[in-house]
Structures are given as structure tokens and as C-alpha cells.
Amino acid sequence: MSLLPAGAIDCDIHPSVPSIQALMPYLEDHWREQVIIRGIDELNSISYPLNSPLTCRADWKAASGRPAASPEVVARQALDPFGTSIAIANCLYGIQLLFSEDMAAAFARAVNDWMVKEWLDREPRLRASIVVPTQNVEMAVDEINRCAADKRFVQILLLVMGDTPLGRRHHWPIYAAAEKHGLAVGIHAGSAYHNPPTPVGWPSYYTEDYVGQAQAFQTQLTSMICEGVFTKFPHLKVVLLESGFTWLPAHLWRLTKYWRGLRMEIPWVDRSPGDIVRSNVRLSLQPVDGPPDLASLMKLFDHMQSDELLLFSTDYPHYQFDGTAAIPDGLPADLVRKIAIDNPRATYARLLETVG
Amino acid sequence: MSRHVVATAHEIPEGGRKLVTVRGRPIAIFNLKGAYFGLLNRCPHQGGPMCEGLITGLREAPMPGEYVYSRAGEILRCPWHGWEFDIKTGQSYCDPERIRTRSYPVEVASGQAVVEGPYVAETIPVSVEEHYLVVEM
Amino acid sequence: MNEVRTQPIPDATVASKVAVADGDIHPARQGAKDFHPWLSQRWQAHLDEYGSPGRQGWQVGPAYPKSQPNASRRDAYPPEGGRPGSSLGFMQEQHLDTNNVALGILNPLGSGQGVQNPDLSAALCHATNEWQLAEWTSKDSRLRASVVVPYEDAVASAAEIRRYAGNPAFVQVLMLSRTAEPLGSRKYWPIYEAAAEAGMPVGVHAFGYGGNPVTPAGWPSYYIEEMTGHSQCQQAGLTSLIVEGVFERWPTLKTVMIEAGFAWAPSLAWRLDKHFKTLRSEMPHLKRLPSEYLRTQVWWTTQPMEEPEPRAHLLDTIEWLGWDRLIFATDYPHWDFDDPAHALPVRATEEQRRAFFLGNARNVYRGCGA
Prior knowledge:
heterotrimer, B: Rieske Iron-sulfur Protein, six-stranded antiparallel sheet, three-stranded antiparallel sheet, 9 strands, 4% helix, C: TIM Barrel, 12 helices, 8 strands, 36% helix, globular, disordered N terminus
């Protein structure tokens, strides 16, 4: 097992909303009562069926209730064993699935306030992403502006499968806000299920849904590059979270080949897709959807042509590895250090402002 | 290097082109507003026949959605994958740092000079007034 | 003179005139009338009055305008006139003879697949199959036909497959990759049953009219995104075929993934294996690892060949995938054509080249001289 250096930065953990009751103190009167009147039990997305083997590793399961439900549990299970100095919390409560913009905005506010009070204030190693109501981009920007003053928010959280591809211009006020506040844009696995979760319709099995996340990330990368997001926002840092990464080189080869012949359609893309990714896009480590042998994995890193792309993550409490074997065996120590510490620091500008 | 007569200037009207062979190499000759340019008729990508490509203008965009159109008639798209080349220099637009197609300077020489000078040129019965297109390679 | 930095190209005339297979040739009709010998009066009239829309909005033309007319090479227009790919004589001269194509697989597009009206779809597909025989395979013995099927109606498709199962001119069943439901859905199972029975692989060609957005996050803006997206569509289709158990149920069934490249496949195999191990309880019907199905029942045509820099990286990818998995294809006469003389600019052994350019195709397609 590759040794994790002390002070690693975990770029993707998932505290759970234990139940909708936990958010009630953070909802305005109208919405709190709506929850009761209408019997809104939970907002749990099928992206992570509560008891699936992937959603929570067996030894992280709670005796009762949701896993990862308190800072104490998270510290004991996710932070201490890895010697983690900082972990970025990405809350996956299904806010983005709602169709009502106002309801989504209310719950986004509640989740972000809950994150501050119940997590960031109680565990100094934690940072968080701002959950936003992508149903209405103006409201999403309002929420970003509201939360940005708290420097412990380091990123804006978007799901990889929303209503329209993320590169499209109506999303751009979010990226402008990100650039303005020095926030990264985190695109996380999961769907709002407003479109079929594959490009060829609705699947029958959860396995198809989960494996298919990689294809969703591929299409979103295509969208953000082709639409010129990085021409318009050259300093934007986009992080693909729980995306896998071994698909990246082949995807860039394909996109670059088409770009060479179809440049006239997107003339604002004046650098190769590979160059854009190497300067502006990062990917979290887990799941390592990689080959079974180290030699092939090292070749793959070679294909990526940069050692700055990967950011250490455990994806806790999702089941992606056993014990503390979050880093693949046999990686060179300096690469491990880049993944665990240097790359996350370079990506999340706000970390430097709040690290003790 | 030697000079080869490949066509008379009149054969290629403005905006037109002609495929010629010089020392076994296929060269596409273009007339851009009375000036002549030659490109090797093999795209550096997979060897597509450049002479059969479409001639267009150049599209650039300082920002997404801002289309700046210029250099009408000066850009050649390979007929296969659509790679764009500056006809005058062979410079590609798809990866300008690294990819260029071979260009051959074409000059217009008067009939008298070609027939009489020390350069190798194919003998072509012409009148003294006609202008020849000469490729040097 | 400026320093000219060009990528080295081998002289095309010297390039190997080793015989090649072409796993993806697109014969084209001159016009609607080409099908009239095999289309009833009713359908001729229907086409004239109502057309044959798939699940997209234009009366004529594809959802995203192409980058070149007919998505074709500009030098592929027959001298006698007509659309690229519509003249056998010109195809022979420009491609089959010039590139020494020993075995060419026809994949006719615009043949009624995915058309909204199921009966019209079936009629057009059948006309296409008769047209392939009459105008192409009977006139050039290098060519083989695909059974074009109205795949959204699997029962009608199975009947069409059985109609030609005994005809050696047909070597493949053709579907498109943008189906209404993922390829592995039970809706399509009669097709796989009939194809396996007939000993023909199912070729899954890029494009289609299933009506789903090109991405699982909605419709993108640009043609380049649609083109790039064929890779993701085929990954989703393959995932479905594996997970739904199509390969498990029909162990002799072969599929060929056509015109979406192949370099994406090793990562998909690794990803499927990893998550299969975690989520195994969902798929008790699967007896093998997903990658094993890919290793034994799936092939890929090579076009458009990915072009990494340095090119040698492609060798790693092919090693991971397997030299026996690739079927060379040009996609003639389309614009993103791969020229056999230049398509494999990496060091490969003679044995590997032979498999890549011809041997694998002979193994996959029945009666092609393996």
C-alpha cells in the first residue's frame, strides 16, 4: 500500500443529512410547514440507494440511522485513520432533483446553513462545497454570494447530470461568481434525473447508472470545453468528483481529433482540449477505475501527460477500497505527495487562506 | 533547386486552382487575387488531396459567440477532415505551432526570361507576351 | 524559406497494398426512387406525402447540421453525378481497387431505421436489404451486406433476419447506437436471438433517432459534441448489453461497435469490473466478469482511429484491448475517413498488422475465408 503522507487533503467526503428533520431548524416557516403538510419524507436520490453495497462500506455503517451522520463519526472513520488535515464535504442530499425553483432554493439554503452550524463549526478540519439550486441560475448565484463570505466554503457543487449540459451559456453566471469569489466548481457524480441517466435512455440496473457516471463526465467535459467556458473564464478551476479518471486520455484524443477538423464551429477554442484540461480541470482520485496492474496504471498516467490532475479523495463513506488503501499500491512517493497535498492546494485557492 | 514551368498564368483564373506535377510531386496551385501560391497536394494529416478542398474565409473568435470573419478566399479546408490551411503559407489553423503543410513559392515569370535564362524549364511553345507560372523546387 | 514542420506521411503510392477488410462502407441511394422496385405503391405515396421522420424535428437533414454536405469527403462525388457512395463504379475506382479492399462490409444509412412509423420503417429496411443484393453484392464479390432491421420493433426485425439468414451475401445485422432504450433492454432481445441463431454479429453503428438527448445531461449545442458523443452512447449501449445479460444468455452472440473509435474501451472494462465486484448482488444472472464478455464477444471497427501524441500511446491501448478485437474500417465516403495507408502509424508486428487489417474481420463475419 502506498504510504499517504501526513496532512493529506481529502477532496471528496459525504456527510449525510440524517433525516429531513435535521434541516427543519434551517428552513423558513413556510417551507418548514410545507414539509409537514405535504408529508415530504426525504429527498434521497436513487444515485445512492440507501443500503446498496456501494453507498456505505460495511464497517462504516451506523448501528442505526444514516452513516456519516455526525462530525464525531466522520472524524473517527474518515479523518483520523488517514491522517487527513483537511476534508472537503460534498453534501449529496437530492436538492437538484426538485422541479420547483423556490423549494430547491429553500432547501439549498438550509443545507448550507446546516453544514456550517453542524459540521464546519464543530470540526476544524472540514471544508465544504456550496449546494446551489441549479433549477434557477440567478438564485444559484444569490446563494453563492450569500455563502461566499465564509472562507470555509471552497467550492460550488453541481451534479454531473442536470437539465442541460453545463457548458451552455445560461450557466455562465455561476462560473462568473466562482471566479469572482475564488471558488472552484465541483461537478459531482449523480443525476437530477430530469433526463434519462444514459444518453440512450433509462437503464434497468443501478450498476448501469453508476458505471454510466463516467460517460456523463465525458460529455460534460466536452460541453465545457466546446462552449468556451475556459476561454471566457480562464482562471476557473473545475474539479470532477467521483468521476473515475482512466477514461480521460482516450476521451481527449477523440475530442482533439474532432476539434482539429471542426474548429470552425467553435473558433473560440484556441488551445487543444488536452491543454485546457491540464490547466483548468482536476479529478478526484476515487473511484480508481483502473487496471489491475501497476505497470498499466503508470502507462495511463503517462497518457495523461500531467501529474497535476489528480486530487486525493476517499469518497467516504462510499465503498471504493478496503481499510485505508485509498492510494493504489506502488505509486512513486513524489507522485503520491502531489496527489495528496500539492495538487489539492494548488486547486483550492481558499484552502490556503484558512489553513492554520 | 530548379525552376519548372507548370502552367500559363491565364489557365488559372482568380479564385481558381490547378493540380500540376513537378518532379513527381503533386502540387495544387491557387490564384488569390492575381497572386499565385502552391501547396503540396497531400494533407499532412492523412494525405488527403488538398486540391479538392473547399476555399473559405477565416473564422476567429476572441470570445464565445463573437465570430470574426476575415481573409475570404484565402483558407483551404482539406476535403477529408476539414483541417484548415492558410493558402499563402501552408500554416494550419488547427494547431498552428506544430502543423503546417508544405508550401511552394510560385512566381510569375515572363516567357522571354524562362526560355532564355540558365534555369531548367520545360520547353513550351508560347508567345513572348504570355506569362508563365514557374515553380521552384 | 520557412522551416516547415510537417508530420511525416508515407508516400501513398508506396503504401502497403496489402489486402484490407473495410468494416464500414456506406453505399448511398441516388434518390428515393432507388427503392421503388421493392416498395409498395402505398409506401411510395406515403413517403411523398408524409416523409419518413425519425425522432427529431427536420423534414430533411440531420438534427445537427454536418460539417460537410452528406457528411462526406469532398473528393468522393462520382464524376457521373450523384451523391458520394452512390456509384459502385466510382467506389471501386477510388476506394475498393485503390486501397485493395478484399472484404467490404456495407452499412447502409438512411435506410428507415428509427423511423417513427413502424410499418414504414420495416418496409424501408426490407427495400434496403433487397437493394444491397441487387445493386451491390451481386455486382462486386468483395462486398457483403448487413441485414438492416427496424430495431425498435424487435419482432419484425427478427423476421427480417430470418428471411436472409440462409443468404451468404449477408454477414451482419445492423442496428444504430442511439436507440430508444439501452441496447440490452429486453425490448431488443428477439433481435439478438435471431442474430445468434443465424451466426451473424450485430453491428452497432454510430447515430440513430431514439429521441433521447445526445448526453445524459440534455442536448448539447454543437455538431462536434454530437460526434464526440457517439463514444459515450456506445459505452452506455455496451454496459447495458453486459449488465442486462445479453452476452450471458447468448454466448455465441457477437457484436461489432462501429464508427465510434475504440480507445475508450479498456477504461470501460476496468470500470465495469470494479463496480461489478461491489454490486454483484444486483446481477446474479452474470457468471463472468464484464471484461470477459468484452474480451470474447465484442469487436470494434477502428475508425475514427484515435490519434494520441505520441502515437505510441495507442499501442498501449491496443494491447489492453487485444489485437484480435479490432476490425479495420474506413467509413468511406464520409469525411472522417481513415486511409489504410496512414491509419496505423505505430510499430506493429506483421502478425498484428494482418489481424488488424484483415484477419479479425475474416474471423468475425461468416463465410469470409477465415
